[in-house]
Design brief:
The protein is mainly α and about 80 residues long. Helix content is about 70%, strand content about 0%. It is flat.
């Protein structure tokens, strides 16, 4: 088994000192979840017939659309 060292920000050090929390289990679970998510993304991407250029264009369009939506929501909340 590999060993991983992590640095804990000062604002979280109090939490890190809690003895009742099995930090090895917490971190292991989060790493597992992220690896599963990445494997899922890889499976989806491997089936894609889009070229990189098409994927980039689609990504830009989605980002622009989301930006406009959130700008509208932000403006409506300020009123």
């Amino acid at each position: 088994m590999e060993e991983i060292r992590i640095h804990i920000p000062d604002e979280l050090k109090e939490l890190a000192l809690m003895k009742r929390i099995n930090w090895q289990l917490v971190v292991s679970k989060k790493i597992n979840e992220e690896l599963e998510r990445l494997a899922c993304v890889e499976r989806i991407v491997s089936k894609s017939k889009l070229t990189q250029e098409q994927a980039d264009k689609l990504s830009d369009e989605v980002n622009l659309s989301l930006a406009k939506r959130y700008q509208g929501l932000l403006k409506s909340k300020r009123k």
